[in-house]
Structure to design on (116 residues):
């Protein structure tokens, strides 16, 4: 009979709270900076020499279309470059703000690709 009482008390007893004051493993503390360091290093490597190489033909074409007068830009977008209209509409103010250098023209693609 005592066994039944002990089982009933064990079933109705509230579950024990897990210990929350356990210390973080020393290894985790030592290596928590590794991932941010890898991401920062990848960004530096990706952005290094971004403006160094000459512009490719597609980058020159994008610059010429984005800096053309509004009516000429939309005419090209509607007749020839139908899949990149929003890109040229974005690139136009980008060039007005940051200039038309090699690095400035490549930066929107670097930022939008998600691969710094």
């Amino acid at each position: 009979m005592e066994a039944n009482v002990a089982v009933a008390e064990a079933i109705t007893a509230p579950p024990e709270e897990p210990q929350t004051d356990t210390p973080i493993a020393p290894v985790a503390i030592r290596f928590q900076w590794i991932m941010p360091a890898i991401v920062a290093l990848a960004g530096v490597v990706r952005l290094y020499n971004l403006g160094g190489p000459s512009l490719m033909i597609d980058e020159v074409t994008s610059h010429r279309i984005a800096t053309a007068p509004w009516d000429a830009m939309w005419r090209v977008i509607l007749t020839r470059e139908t899949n990149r209209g929003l890109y040229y509409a974005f690139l136009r103010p980008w060039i007005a703000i940051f200039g038309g250098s090699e690095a400035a023209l490549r930066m929107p693609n670097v930022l939008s690709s998600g691969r710094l």
In short: The chain has a mean pLDDT of 78. The radius of gyration is 30 Å. The helical segments are 2-12, 26-31, 34-47, 57-67, 70-79, 85-98, 102-113.
